[in-house]
Amino acid sequence: MIEIIQTGPFNTVQDLGRTGFRNIGVTTSGAMDPLALKAGNSLLGNETGAAVVEVQTYPFKLRFAKQTAFAVTGADCGASLDGRMVQPWCALPIEAGQVLELGQPRVGTRAYICIAGGIDVASVMGSRSTSLRGAFGGSEGRFLSTGDVLKLGEVSTALNFPATGLAVIDPAFALTDFYPANEDGALVVRAIPAGEHALFGADAERFWMQTWKISTQSDRTGYRLMGEPIKPTTPVEMRSHGVVSGVVQVPPSGEPIIQMADANTAGGYPKIAGVIEADLWRLGQARIGSRLRFVRATHAQAAAVEKAVATFIDDVRSTSRMVCDALQAMK
Amino acid sequence: MTKPDFSDPAIIERLAAALETAGVDGIEITRPDQSLLIRLSSSAKGPARQVRSGKTDSVGAAAIVKAPMAGEFWSLDLSRTATPAASTARDAIGFLRVGPTLLPVSAGPSKRLGRHLVEPGTIVGFGDPIAEVETEA
Asked: What chain B residue is nearest to A43 in terms of C-alpha separation?
């Protein structure tokens, strides 16, 4: 078990989300940075989609009630264990009673506390993710509160991590061949033109050319962007239709909205683009007030990046076990 | 019974001679206050010796940290150098890169890094000396 000692609002239990129910209005939810969740779980030997704690308001503090292993992935928030600094993205063994503390992020925005066995909250419609809008899943359908106690899942074959831990190389470094570098401080996000792209005429090009700022009206549901408005050549009225995370809609104001993990299940705004799935984790770590730019991608490019990420995650899993076994054998 | 002083050249010489006589390649002796490493090798030019002796009980005295397994030695987490504010475990004196993972290597309790003994990017094997550490005051 773990006990939450200190938390701000909007910190929740998340896994890879609740798929298959958008047709009845159930949002997918899930981690805003699924790569951090997958890497942490793979490092620990958990199922790739095991439930973790997503932290997006700080400081955050918890106490472990039993001996286990954990890793903090995602944002680098200067995590410390009993006051001792721990390496980011590093799996460490811990004793019962030890206290993990996360401070304000130095890099990124959302940290993921992954623990051996995963967070064992009830699975609702196939997922342990918290649906804040639906008020179900996770810990009683709400964000975590001080004093909450969360159970941990059983560990089938525990890895024996060395006392110094075992870390994952920063994915941004490991996957540098597959992710474009920032341009003039702006995050480069790849997207594919969507259904109503052509309706924007010359403004469509301005969508791709300009740098957008992530506004304060941004959360797990969506990021509202600020910039020079773009408008369709003629006003359009569309029936509401299904949308998914990554869809970039343009409301009448002309400033786009990117649907994120808690994306609405339907909407009637015209869609100008869709962010490729493999780039959503980078948006999940982008700060409010930071800038981004969209660049066109093809379906083939999107598939190639997804494949590279999947290979990286598989490699983390197999190498972690191999290293732990080798260190045990050489004791 | 008094403990032998492994920094005494006469004792090192006697031990090395005994090893040669016995046909042993080397010996490493570690105790809380001292350490001694003697490696012997034969070549066409005759026997060669590598001797490393050190006291480890006093403040500032050196000890050797060895690679816990094979890997590529990194003196720091190169994957995060692009972000100068990135955190690093306080006592990590280096890392071994194995595929997509990094194995932190610590100085040990109450120790601090003296100097690295291998260049960043070097492939090291299990037991290879990678750093000299000193006892903290």
From this structure: B101
Given the cut 0.95, state whether the ipTM is greater than it. no
What's the domain range around A89? 2-168
Confirm or reject contact between B86 and chain A (CB < 8 A): yes
Using one digit for the tens of pLDDT, what is the confidence trace for A78-137? 999 999 989 999 999 999 999 999 999 988 999 999 999 999 999 999 999 999 989 999
Q: State how far residue B43 is from chain A, nearest Cα, in angstroms.
A: 31
The answer to whether A277 and A309 have CB atoms below 8 angstroms apart is: no
- A76/B87 Cβ within 8 A: yes
On whether any CB of chain B is under 8 Å from the CB of A103, the answer is no
Q: Specify whether B21 is located in the same domain as B49.
A: yes
Bond before A9 cis per omega within 30 degrees: no
Q: B128 with B68, same domain?
A: yes
CATH number where A287 lies: 2.40.100.10
Q: Total structural domains in chain A? A: 2
Q: What percentage of chain B carries pLDDT values higher than 90?
A: 30
User: CA distances (Å), A24 to each of A198, A222, A242, A261, A264, in order?
Assistant: 30, 20, 11, 17, 12
Q: What DSSP letter does each residue of A212-251 carry, written as one string?
A: EEEEEEE-SSEEEEESS----SS------EE--TTEEE--
The DSSP output letter for A275 is E
Nearest residue to A224 via CA among A182, A286, A169 = A286
What letter does residue A141 receive in the DSSP assignment? T
- Which chain B residues are Cβ-neighbours of A35 within 8 angstroms? none
